[in-house]
Design goal:
Elements: E1 6-10, H1 15-26, E2 30-35, H2 38-47, E3 52-56, H3 62-76, E4 81-84, H4 95-123, E5 126-131, H5 144-166, E6 171-178, H6 198-210, E7 215-218, H7 222-231, H8 234-237
Parallel strand pairs: 1-2, 1-4, 2-3, 4-5, 5-6, 6-7
Helix pairs in contact: 1-6, 3-4, 4-5
The protein binds NADP nicotinamide-adenine-dinucleotide phosphate.
NADP nicotinamide-adenine-dinucleotide phosphate binds at residues 11-17, 35-37, 57-60, 85-89, 104, 131, 133, 178, 180-181, 183-186.
Length: 242
């Protein structure tokens, strides 16, 4: 008989994914942890208070990633929540880098989310959590591909949510949109605007997960910035050097 919740974190080896693992483990969740740096995941596993499972997974290898997710779910026997956190950020300009970003942030995301949706549908209940970004709100020049990839994720999750709601499936879809959060992704960029510690950001993410929220900005005040970019006239937006 299962006595605790079980969650899989795709991309749990650093930053937001690692901190989510720490906080969920402290709450007694059993965890499945994935990432390319499997040795790092094994060290993290040792430090967590609850039971956990690890798997090497590169979401850029989408078919293989789906196979690994299937195996992990079987090993864990039952999973309540799948958190798709893996993602990369690259400056716009280099085609190979743009393609790589799309492989991870877009194709990799759909590969996992599609499988999660089918799994929860069959199971009768579940929750998909996707880490998008405030950058999903507009096309920012220096990171145009990244912004577009996050817009894709948020729109895709909205579609999954509508499907679930419209068909009375008990599957929650939580779209998490962080502003700036301390992590390997933001390391070396100095003090960024409204930068949150990983701990504070993940406390808010965990709370949103537990409330099965549809959408959350991290930290909460980033909702204001998101609104600003969403409503700004294009004639003004295109003048900004972002
Ligand atoms: N930090 C911010 O300010 C911020 C703001 C908005 C949104 N986000 C989003 O938050 C998510 C987490 O990023 P982070 O800031 O915590 O950065 P991070 O410390 O660089 O973490 C990225 C995580 O994604 C995993 N990952 C990357 N490429 C992968 C791949 N090909 N296959 C499997 N896993 C992969 C990494 O694991 P391995 O390297 O071990 O594979 C790592 O665990 C990303 O989706 C990012 O876009 C971050």
């Amino acid at each position: 008989m299962k006595n605790s919740k079980r969650a899989i974190i795709i991309g749990a080896s650093s930053g937001i994914g690692l901190e989510l693992a720490k906080q969920l483990s402290a709450k007694g969740y059993e965890l499945g942890l994935t990432g390319r740096r499997v040795e790092l995941l094994k060290q993290i596993q040792q430090s967590l208070p609850s039971k956990s499972f690890t798997r090497a997974m590169d979401v850029a290898e989408a078919d293989e990633a789906r196979h690994i997710l299937d195996e992990l779910i079987k090993e864990m026997e039952d999973v309540d929540i799948i958190i798709i956190n893996a993602g990369v950020s690259e400056k716009w300009g280099d085609w190979e880098k743009e393609r790589y970003l799309i492989d991870i942030n877009v194709t990799g995301f759909v590969a996992i989310a599609n499988m999660a949706m089918h799994y929860f549908r069959e199971r009768g209940q579940g929750q998909i959590v996707g880490i998008s970004s405030v950058a999903s709100q507009a096309g920012f020049g220096s990171v145009a591909t990244y912004s577009a990839s996050k817009a894709f994720i948020s729109t895709y999750m909205q579609g999954l949510r509508q499907q679930s709601h419209g068909r009375n499936w008990d599957i929650a879809v939580t779209d998490v949109r962080p502003g700036f959060v301390e992590s390997e992704m933001t390391a070396g960029r100095g003090k960024l605007f409204w930068m949150a510690t990983t701990e504070r950001a993940c406390k808010q993410i965990v709370s949103a997960i537990e409330q099965r929220k549809s959408l959350v900005y991290i930290t909460k005040r980033w909702r204001l910035i998101a609104w600003l970019f969403k409503t700004m006239p294009d004639t003004l937006f295109r003048r900004l050097k972002l």
